[in-house]
Amino acid sequence: MLPWASPLEIYDNPERQEIPVSNYVAVSALTAVTWDWVLSVEEECRIVRRCGLSIPVVVYYLARISAMVLCVLSVAIHSILPESDSCRAIISTMTAMSIVAAATKSFLFLRRVRAVYAKSIHVTLCFFVGWLAVVGTRAAIPFATSRLEPTEQCHRSGLPSWAPASLWVNLAYDTAVFVAISARLASYATYPQKHRIMSFIWGEGLPRTMRSFLRHGLLFYFSTVGLSLLATIVSSLPLSPTSKDIFWPSVLTTEIIMVCKLFRVSVPGTVKTTETEMAVLYTNITPSCNTVIELQT
Q1: pLDDT greater than 80 at residue 290
Q2: Which domains does the chain have, with CATH numbers?
């Protein structure tokens, strides 16, 4: 229960009844992103020592920080009663962090696609347009703030009817990345053409490193697509602003956790290789640090 609201106040305002549920979701998201970051500190230190503060590493940490700040503010706005002047500042910061999180997550995916397709100009251009669509639709959503009576709780309002389009665009981009990478890797499989679907799904017939690369992408997609689809559908329903936004911290948090994991395992030294494997597809991070996909010779 909210510390400043009586049971009668919550019961009398249906939208206020949704805030405790939204707070529980936000606390869960904050716990998940904090716990994952704590467990990843050792790997991240190795990456920084090897790669330095290159652009991909900086983007990686921007993704981490934006997700953390977003979760903290999501909890704070439901757990405390902000002053009148700070209400809009909090909502503005949350909106900015969601844009940064979407931009950094999509950028790391863009790098991953470029690595698989050996920096193909056409593929890069295609997915760069997708990246612009993800960031643009998220940044274009206007917002306003209001307070719920009688306790003056701050919350976001004024979302346009087309706001769920940003979630659909994000889901479409993630799906396109997953299909493009899986199809490209499956094309290197030694399986007969009629069994190529097994290579697409499970990586059968692929060298060990490529199979690991594909399966990590599979893990990301299917661990996030269900939650993303749920959040997208809920945001499209004729519900209150609080209900429409109830799942989006969890969606962003899950995506950031998984895409950061994909980034870490793609840095050399994380995945062991054999002498019969060589790097034929790569994306430069710095002269001393490359993200590699390895094929068996």
Answers
A1: no
A2: 21-148+161-270 (1.20.1070)
